[in-house]
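Saturday, quiet lab. Running sequence design on the structure tokens for the scaffold JK sent over.
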């Protein structure tokens, strides 16, 4: 267990995650030829196996592999950097014990870096920071370290000194061991560790003293040793850094160039030395009563595993599984609390893109593939007690998929592809919880909804490339919502006589108003006294209120943030029923909504961007045109960073406009940020356009 590591590699798009992973695979002997992300004609990077990933030069879905370094087994998940695929980062971080947070030495902290940092904090994942691209023109490692401290609020502690920068970058000085580390050979595979040159001795001693001072603030053992007169032993310093890193008190910082084949091996050493093994991480499950239960990373206990990702292929479903406790073996029977059914473990696989290896069992702490079992993403798999054959009654908390904010119609170009089109969409929706398949109620077209325009375009490309189903995408549609800002009373009698048998009779009186909570659809308040409406009919009343909120009075969008208060009612001894009260409440609430001052809501996104300083004025003016609210801005000598809240409907063309305003040197990230009321003049225009 102490020789296992589970880590993710995360960053802003184009910071060098996949290039770094490719070098790690090569130096650990997992592959014998380095592929490059930018090699569109050749095999490309190992971890980017999809045709769409090779075509766009970005990672679209997380891929896992396992390597060996210094007699340690390291499972690595390479995650996407684009905001549209944040669900891949979210579910990977849910099961990982540590992470490498990659930054460009030129661009520094970028837009998506903020979102990744929030995800790592939410899941409590210890991380190393790797400042990549040290050989690029404009590399400024000291400025990037300062950004980690000031912009992300991290206690960034450099463990190395760069030996040069830009074209002169030649390696690093390890401040813990006080040696120079240089990587030579055609692919940087020859690592030379030599004593520090005399001209660097003073700078290295000063930097190591700063390292000891910063770490000792978070570790009592090192603090006590630092107060003495004796030199700090290397082992003591390394152990203190490990304890502080695992506790999340510091973020060790390392430098290198993945594309330049420099200083990747010292990063692997840091993974072994400073990131936790599975037994050092607390993982919780919950009992049927909702009580927390600590999972113990011991292979002899009843198994508890979590399915965090699915890949649908031509030959079946591959489930990515993290084993938290016990052992999963081929042929075992496990219990799934979601389905309340027993499953048989089919093939177990050691994960690697395009080349998984069959294995017989997986023990606590491992991340493996499970092929041929009918499970879903988010399922818990519980082992059986060998004595009683009773299943372990535990459930591991899942992850929240981001709510879709962009919708587009989609249809196959050929009618003969309809069946294959439906199967492929169902497969993608099963793989990606953030992708929602629906139907346009007005025209009957199939719709796909997701977290961004690029996500939907990529799926359209995959339909053509992987499934042979070319499609047409409609223009982006915003996921509008409606609410009310006033209140209105209702008093409605639903009466329907069939002429022969039992009819329908239900009277309801109450009011509709804003609940003040846009995150919930309905707050149903029951103030019925004296049995005016029998208790068994109240669930029908609530269902009727929900049905009325499915389509608002302005543009037919779903309604949120509505409170329905039920005060009184009328019944008939024969004709009253649950259905009658459901229909009565639906019609009453639907009519009252038109009088309760309905308002249009639009989805907002958090826009984080970096651009050259000279473009600051143009960017601010463009954001004002888009009705943006500036949250934070910082202008430096060479670059500017801006954080703003912007209506989603104003961002569909932002990538092209940003490139025009900044000469192609700007970068941005969009993150969903809830809903807000559309200002009245704008709302009138939007409503008229949508109704037309």
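Result came back. Writing it out in full:
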């Amino acid at each position: 267990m102490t020789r296992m590591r589970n880590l993710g590699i995360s960053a802003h798009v184009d910071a060098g995650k996949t290039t770094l992973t490719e070098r790690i695979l090569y130096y650990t002997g997992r592959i014998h030829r380095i592929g490059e992300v930018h090699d569109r004609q050749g095999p490309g990077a190992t971890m980017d196996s999809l045709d769409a990933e090779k075509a766009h030069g970005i990672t679209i879905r997380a891929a896992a592999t396992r390597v060996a370094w210094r007699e340690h087994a390291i499972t690595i998940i390479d995650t996407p950097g684009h905001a549209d695929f944040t669900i891949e980062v979210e579910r990977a971080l849910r099961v990982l014990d540590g992470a490498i947070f990659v930054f460009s030495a030129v661009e520094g902290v970028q837009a998506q870096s903020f979102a990744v940092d929030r995800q790592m904090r939410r899941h409590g994942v210890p991380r190393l920071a790797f400042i990549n691209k040290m050989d690029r023109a404009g590399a400024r490692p000291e400025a990037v370290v300062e950004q980690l401290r000031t912009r992300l609020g991290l206690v960034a502690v450099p463990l190395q000194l760069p030996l040069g920068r830009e074209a002169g970058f030649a390696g690093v000085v390890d401040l813990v061991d006080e040696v120079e580390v240089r990587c030579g050979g055609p692919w940087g595979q020859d690592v030379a560790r030599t004593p520090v040159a005399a001209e660097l001795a003073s700078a290295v001693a000063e930097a190591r003293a700063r390292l000891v001072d910063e770490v000792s603030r978070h570790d009592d053992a090192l603090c006590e040793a630092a107060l003495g007169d004796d030199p700090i032993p290397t082992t003591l310093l390394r152990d203190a850094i490990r304890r502080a890193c695992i506790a999340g008190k510091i973020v060790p910082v390392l430098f290198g160039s993945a594309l330049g084949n420099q200083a990747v091996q010292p990063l692997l050493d840091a993974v072994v030395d400073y990131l936790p093994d599975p037994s050092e991480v607390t993982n919780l499950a919950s009992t049927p009563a909702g009580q927390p239960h600590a999972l113990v990373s011991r292979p002899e206990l009843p198994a508890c595993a979590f399915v965090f990702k699915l890949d649908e292929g031509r030959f079946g479903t591959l489930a990515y599984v993290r084993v938290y406790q016990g052992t999963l073996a081929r042929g075992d029977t496990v219990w799934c609390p979601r389905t309340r059914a027993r499953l048989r473990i089919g093939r177990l696989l050691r994960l690697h893109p395009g080349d998984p290896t069959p294995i017989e069992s997986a023990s606590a702490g491992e991340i493996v593939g499970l092929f041929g079992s009918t499970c879903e993403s988010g399922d818990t798999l519980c082992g059986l007690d060998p004595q009683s054959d009773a299943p372990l009654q535990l459930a591991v908390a899942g992850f929240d998929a981001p709510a879709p904010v962009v919708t587009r119609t989609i249809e196959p170009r050929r009618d003969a592809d309809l069946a294959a089109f439906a199967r492929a969409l169902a497969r993608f929706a099963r793989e990606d919880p953030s992708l929602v398949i629906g139907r346009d109620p007005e025209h009957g077209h199939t719709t796909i909804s997701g977290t961004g325009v690029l996500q939907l375009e990529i799926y359209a490309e995959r339909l053509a490339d992987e499934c042979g189903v070319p499609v047409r995408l409609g223009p982006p549609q915003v996921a509008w919502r409606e609410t009310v800002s006033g209140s209105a009373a209702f008093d409605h009698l639903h009466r329907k006589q069939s002429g022969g048998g039992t009819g329908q009779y239900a009277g309801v009186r109450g009011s509709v108003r804003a609940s003040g909570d846009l995150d919930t659809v309905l707050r149903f308040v029951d103030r019925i006294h004296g049995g005016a409406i029998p208790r068994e009919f109240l669930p029908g009343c609530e269902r009727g209120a929900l049905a009325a909120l499915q389509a608002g009075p302005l543009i037919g969008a779903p309604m949120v943030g509505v409170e329905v208060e039920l005060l009184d009612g009328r019944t008939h001894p024969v004709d009253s029923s649950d259905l009658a009260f459901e229909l009565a409440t639906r019609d009453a609430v639907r009519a009252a909504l038109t009088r309760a001052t309905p308002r249009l809501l639009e989805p907002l996104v958090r826009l984080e961007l970096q651009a050259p300083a000279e473009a600051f004025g143009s960017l601010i003016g463009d954001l004002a045109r888009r009705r943006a609210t500036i949250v934070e801005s910082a202008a430096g000598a060479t670059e500017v960073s801006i954080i703003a809240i912007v209506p989603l409907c104003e961002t569909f063309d932002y990538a092209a406009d940003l490139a025009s305003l900044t000469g192609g040197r700007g970068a941005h990230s969009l993150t969903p940020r809830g809903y807000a009321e559309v200002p009245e003049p704008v709302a009138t225009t939007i409503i008229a356009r949508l109704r037309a």
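Notes for JK: Residues 486-596 form a domain with the Ribosomal Protein S5; domain 2 fold (CATH 3.30.230.10). The chain has a mean pLDDT of 91. Ask whether to fix the surface positions before the next round.
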